[in-house]
Amino acid sequence: MVRNSGKLANLPTSWRPSVLLSYLGKVLEGIVASRMQETLKANPELLPARQFGWRTTSEVFEYMLDKVYSACVMGKFVTVMGLDINGAYDNIWRQALLQTLADKVPALDRRDDPVFPF
After folding, report:
1. What's this model's pTM, rounded to 2 decimal places?
2. Residue-range domain boundaries for the chain
């Protein structure tokens, strides 16, 4: 929050939100996220089977239920642990991520593409 100039600090109306991310940045993030989703759907081997980012809720439940039922049939116990890193994509080193995708999926090597400029 940023205080409006000439306003008293103790009044709620003296403060306004501060937007730190540009609109263009948000648009580019959306484009990159969309392309990553398309790539991961076309190349599921790029995402480890036990990493559920980019997967639908139904895919996650299907995987988990399969493991639970298989263990029950064999008389075993199952423990489930989840880790959700809030804002993981917002905090990742994008250049390294894009380079890794380009290295693993040669079709992403688009030299004239502003999102993949390498």
Report:
1. 0.39
2. 22-108
